[in-house]
Amino acid sequence: MSKKIESPDDLLQVGLKDTWYAICPSSFVADKPVSMRRLGMKLVLWRDEAGKIYALEDHCPHRGAPLSKGILLGDRIACGYHGVQVRSDGVVTNVPGSPGCSLEGKRAARSFHVVERNDAVFLYNSAENVDEAPDFTLPEELVSDEYGAFLCYTEWRSDYRYVIDNVMDPMHGTYLHKQSHSMAEGSSEAEFGVRNTEHGFIFEKKGQRGVNFDWTEWADTGLHWLRLEIPYPATGGPGGSFAIVGTYTPITENLAAVFHWRCRRVSGWQRHAWQFLYRNRLEARHWTVLEQDREVLEVMEPDANQRENLYQHDVGLVRLRRHLRNLAAQQLDTLQGKAA
What pTM did the predictor assign? Predict the structure, then answer.
């Protein structure tokens, strides 16, 4: 059952509407219906014979049985409880137990637009059924042939907003990750500034670049994503700095879907060299760094962000929190206006 949305915080907790979210790796959806909780809902995803992916709320409009227990019929699912057939756009196409009843032809189920990119499934979290969804843009590291990228997916027992705060905080790398092979350099003190970009902003250390985890970028290009770079020594292989692109999705109130693409600017033989080096030497180290973040975030109290004493290093996350809350407040006004 979806939680009633009464405040901007309620909306943020389950994810903003009319926004794209990464919801799972592509490999999670194979030849059978898959049920998963995301964005305050229970969803069913499946593929047709050609491999195209679809998504509905995992709720039959007849009696609420999970459609994920049904039978696949191409772009439709026949509910396993009473055989009601629901098309990918939410329209009930057949009620075998009562042909011609008022449910047939009705768009009675919640449907969602989904696409696959960079080994992940993205879903448009529309406030209501829409015939078409706007596109979204991924950062250069995930669309340019000049980069190679690996998707790293995990689930953390934490509010997804704590994960966003963590990435929006470059200074924690100097302390939490100080033993890392790539984050041991640079000053343990810093002054930060904010620089606007076309789609968001960059929060960066003043006077230090290319030394440690020195900056984070947040952007809204239909999908909300964050980007950072970690300088690498020559022993880290070709490609210069190591880029990380992240996006984060609520599963439940205290469980987050965490997507990180690990990227290097490499092509030709260098791409193959880096891929080999990554799998054999670097990947385990990167998982160690992620585990350090996870261990901290998973034991933070749910109300930790209500009892803070922030200072200059936290300007970036304060700005982002305020921006997201304003977006949520605007959306809530719109949703409540439609309801009225």
Answer: 0.94
